Amino acid sequence: MLDGLNWLLDPAHWSGSRGIPTRLLEHLAITGLTLLIAGVIALAAGLAIGHTRRGRGLVVGLSGALRAMPTLGLLVFIAVQFGFGVRLAIIPTLIVLVVLAIPPILAGAYAGVESVDPATVDASRALGLTEWQILWRVEFPLALPLIVGGLRSAMLQVVATATVAAYISLGGLGRFLFDALPLRDYPQMLAGAILVAALALILDLLFLLVGKAVLPAGVRATRGTRRSKTPTERTAA
Amino acid sequence: MIEFDGISKRFPDGTLAVDNFSLRLPSREITVFVGSSGSGKTTLLRMINRMVEPTSGRILIDDEDVAQLNPVTLRRRIGYVMQNSGLLPHRTVLQNIATVPLLNRVPRAEAVARARELMDTVGLDAAFANRYPAELSGGQQQRVGVARGLAVNPNILLMDEPFGAVDPIVRRELQEELLRLQQELAKTIVFVTHDIDEAFLLGDHVTILARGGQIAQHGTPDEILSNPASEFVADFIGADRGRRALTLRESNGRTLVVDGTGRIAGVLGAETATGPVSVGAGGRDEHLGEITLGTEAAEAPHEVAPAVNDAPTASGVPEVDTPR
């Protein structure tokens, strides 16, 4: 452990194209890109499922099954099987990470929309909101806390798993692990592991704060000071 | 005028909720659909703004077939108030009221000013403007719901058991408030309830529905009470029992009004000319209030019977029967 920390504190490891800042940025880039792609796909599907209440079994089953595939195995398979696989290592990497990230985001999205009180949705429709307006002005804001929750758990898995990118010669914090392994350079491996863990914790905290910020104000009011609905009107009015 | 023309509705599961229902609802008056669950009353209401599509038949609003209208446009022209207010929990009272005007691209300042006006109209303190629905009591939420229903200044207001979920005292206030509002605004109101006393209190016209949207009787409260069309109606309105079967009894030189349960409902006033029953003022409110609270069981249909007595639609007051 101490060796790992010493390795981390060595100024020589904090510069250059193989230094910690570069690897950190690469790791963040892979994570961010994955979440962006998975987010677009899974949010679109999840919101559609939540709003229409259709196709849930199919899509959830499918994404769950894909996810059950071992990441490393899938990565190597895609890299070897397709022509672009090794030349453009980023593509197989993104595919496996996106597959990993979709289920939690999807679950957050449809669970979030389904958690909205049907009476609220019904009333909105009766007022004359279009289906799009119901989705964006009512269901989406009310589902946001659960959506952010889904993104958060996807992010944690992707940050940890993005280390496999290094296995097929990409960058990222995984480099420290895979480069050090054949050399039995355990301090470097330990340092890499510490960096991944620290990054995950920091991002997790960030998502936690975002999650709090997007909690709709009226819903916050409910949780803070729920009042009995019976005879308060007399005293309040 | 709203006209139901041979309306039927069969739900996908096969239940026939409404079977060949035809009725005209006059403009600028309150028509109440009353019936127990399964009578199709809510289904009928929701067909007016196309929240439910009839399987056959037509609904005309001022001779215009609603099926020809875009549902969104139609709904924005019609006010809708539902049982649990259906307010948007993430928006303030003011934003909730102004929702539809803003969708209709009314300038924000104008929509907000109008929303504040409406809060006043429905008796909501201006201090609630920036509160969220969860911070209001059930009764206050219903007031917001009514204000929102009125926000686009609709000719038609649909009310689906709007006071069903609030406690009896607040319900009473809201009912009176609605009658006051209706005197000012004169909307065409379709009101759904399972509470016959609420129906008689509020309705200019009352439609008593049996299973499958069959009209058991349609008429003014006066007509229905004085001449129930069938055994079913008589039983439903409880004409010959309980709080509605009033009898007179002489005691110490004054005439007491006694209901079917043996309770003393009040004292018959000397100046009976002013109304069918003018009950002695003094102890009355207190006494009736006590009865109302004492027998309150949310779903019991008859406990607010005395409310009928002082309603503006006093035509619904039961004639005082002599002992049978």
TrEMBL record, chain A:
Family per similarity comment: Belongs to the binding-protein-dependent transport system permease family.
Name the UniProt record assigns to this protein: ABC transporter permease
Residue ranges of domain ABC transmembrane type-1 in the record: 24-207
Organism whose genome encodes this protein: Mycetocola tolaasinivorans
UniProt entry keywords in alphabetical sequence: Membrane, Transmembrane, Transmembrane helix, Transport
UniProt KW Transport keyword: yes
GO biological process, one term: glycine betaine transport
Residues passing through the membrane, by range: 28-50, 57-84, 90-113, 158-178, 190-210
Family annotation (Gene3D superfamilies): MetI-like
Pfam families referenced in this protein's UniProt entry, alphabetically: BPD_transp_1 (PF00528)
From TrEMBL, chain B:
Domain annotation ABC transporter: ranges: 2-237
Molecular functions per Gene Ontology: ABC-type quaternary ammonium compound transporting activity; ATP binding; ATP hydrolysis activity
Catalytic EC class: translocase
EC number: 7.6.2.9
Source organism superkingdom: Bacteria
Keyword Nucleotide-binding: yes
Pfam families: ABC_tran
Keyword annotations from UniProtKB, A to Z: ATP-binding, Nucleotide-binding, Transport
Region (Disordered): 304-324
SUPFAM superfamilies linked to this entry: P-loop containing nucleoside triphosphate hydrolases
Family note: Belongs to the ABC transporter superfamily.
Stated name of the protein: ABC-type quaternary amine transporter
Species for this entry: Mycetocola tolaasinivorans
